[in-house]
Amino acid sequence: MVFLLVFLTVVHLVTLAMLLIATLEKSWWIWTDSEITDIWYNCFHDNDTKTWLCAATSDSDWLQSIQALMVLSVVFSSISFLVFLGQLFTMSRGGLFYFTGLCQAFAGFTDFAACLIFTFHRKEIFNDSRDLNKGRFGYCFILAWLCVPLLLVSGVLYVHLRKKQ
């Protein structure tokens, strides 16, 4: 049981870090090596100054939904970890981590919804005349998808985890 506890804690922290990177970094969609788009900014690489020049993305309802869902996912996962630490030190022996597992599962579902919306509504989100076939998904989008099963599985494992000592 101690191994499961340590494993879940490590998975939770790694998943939380991946969620933060996926939410805050600038690589959800890559048009070219010098032009990328994320859920917050459109960025261009200026070769003269060797810096990224970024402007806010368009105000699409779908994009605002993705932003809200990703932030909610980070919040739910953070709350889940804090509640887990609190329960670990205050819960009586034999107690189950239901609330922690529920928060972690909600984080997985909100991340899943954000990824699905981005996957199926890219054209409406970008509101661009460019061909989407000339772009590709970035690593932040892939990280967000990788977080979905990790969050859901850890949520289920938290529900089954019982405090022994």
Which labels suit this protein?
5 strands; 165 residues
Rounded radius of gyration (Å)? 19 Å
Helical stretch tally: 5
Compressed to H and E, one letter per element, the order equals: HEEEEHHHEH
Query: How many strands, what sense, and barrel or not for the largest sheet?
Result: 5 strands, antiparallel
Low-confidence stretches: none
Which word captures the global form? elongated
- Taken as a percent bin, the fraction of beta residues is 5-15%
The pLDDT mean sits at 87
Helical percentage: 55-70%
- Compute the separation of the termini in Å: 10 Å
Which structural class do you get from the secondary structure elements?
Answer: alpha+beta
What does this structure look like?
By secondary structure, this protein is α+β, with helices and mostly antiparallel strands. Helix content is 62%, strand content 13%. The protein has helices at residues 2-24, 61-90, 98-120, 122-126, 139-160, and strands spanning 29-32, 35-37, 41-46, 51-56, 136-137. It has a 5-stranded antiparallel beta sheet with strand order 4-3-2-1-5. β3 (41-46) and β4 (51-56) form a beta hairpin. The chain is elongated, with a radius of gyration of 19 Å. The termini are close together. The mean pLDDT is 87.
